From TrEMBL:
<dbReference type="InterPro" id="IPR036956">
    <property type="entry name" value="Impact_N_sf"/>
</dbReference>
<protein>
    <submittedName>
        <fullName>YigZ family protein</fullName>
    </submittedName>
</protein>
<dbReference type="InterPro" id="IPR023582">
    <property type="entry name" value="Impact"/>
</dbReference>
<dbReference type="InterPro" id="IPR015269">
    <property type="entry name" value="UPF0029_Impact_C"/>
</dbReference>
<dbReference type="InterPro" id="IPR020569">
    <property type="entry name" value="UPF0029_Impact_CS"/>
</dbReference>
<dbReference type="Pfam" id="PF09186">
    <property type="entry name" value="DUF1949"/>
</dbReference>
<feature type="domain" description="UPF0029">
    <location>
        <begin position="141"/>
        <end position="192"/>
    </location>
</feature>
<dbReference type="Pfam" id="PF01205">
    <property type="entry name" value="Impact_N"/>
</dbReference>
<dbReference type="InterPro" id="IPR020568">
    <property type="entry name" value="Ribosomal_Su5_D2-typ_SF"/>
</dbReference>
<comment type="similarity">
    <text>Belongs to the IMPACT family.</text>
</comment>
<dbReference type="InterPro" id="IPR001498">
    <property type="entry name" value="Impact_N"/>
</dbReference>
<dbReference type="InterPro" id="IPR015796">
    <property type="entry name" value="Impact_YigZ-like"/>
</dbReference>
<dbReference type="InterPro" id="IPR035647">
    <property type="entry name" value="EFG_III/V"/>
</dbReference>
<feature type="domain" description="Impact N-terminal">
    <location>
        <begin position="19"/>
        <end position="123"/>
    </location>
</feature>
Length: 211
């Protein structure tokens, strides 16, 4: 049984400046530790002149793998705060790297924690978060005379119509969370005059609105 999860909407990067230090946050969706490590190394290679390339990632739909690195910053002032931002937003399958170019002003432990946390938080606000919910494809085929009634029912009940096929009959490909309940509703609505077929079962992503 698939479970819903949250991750970043898209890959991206954002830069903030704190007391003349540049903090560039990079984020990427990943599906394995190897992919996460390769991304971190790629950022380090690209920004080899930077003072630090700190990182954090969470993998697995149940956040089975959590890793972080301070990359030379005082212990606990970079990687862990970055990881906490990911955890607090319930994100998985994501890696973030914050590259720091030192500006000459020391921030202290508290300042570093706030800076690295802010870089990741700003990134998430910029690129967005999605919640992926497992849903079933249902193909509902009806006669043209019933297609308007069915479409009205689907739209007024906020069902997601993935695709509509107009052939000999009309087929709606609908994404639903509860296939059994949905099929019972259609049979009742159309007095059995509907052909139902189950399709793929997978994730549907929806943008999370942040307060």
């Amino acid at each position: 049984m698939l479970e819903k999860y949250r991750t970043i909407r898209t890959d991206g990067q954002v830069e903030i400046e704190i007391k003349k230090s540049r903090f560039i946050c990079f984020a990427k969706r990943v599906s394995s530790e190897e992919e996460a490590r390769e991304y971190i190394q790629a950022i380090k290679k690209e920004h080899w002149k930077a003072n630090h390339n700190c990182s954090a990632y969470i993998l697995g739909k149940k956040a089975e793998v959590l890793r972080s690195s301070d990359d030379g910053e005082p212990s606990g002032t970079a990687g862990v705060p970055m990881l906490e931002v990911l955890k607090n937003n319930q994100l998985v399958d994501v890696v973030v790297v914050v590259t720091r170019y030192f500006g000459g002003v020391k921030l202290g432990a508290g300042g570093l924690i706030r800076a690295y946390s802010s870089a990741v938080s700003t990134m998430l606000e910029e690129i967005g978060i999605v919640e992926a919910t497992p849903q079933q494809e249902i193909f509902a085929t009806v006669d043209y005379s019933l297609s308007g009634k069915l479409q009205h029912f689907l739209e007024t009940n906020d069902y997601t119509i993935k695709e509509t096929l107009f052939l000999e009959n009309v087929t709606f490909c609908v994404l639903v969370k509860d296939a059994v309940s949905f099929e019972e509703q259609l049979i009742d609505l159309l007095h059995g005059n509907v052909e139902l077929k189950e399709g793929n079962y997978g994730y549907v992503e929806q943008l999370v609105t942040r307060e």
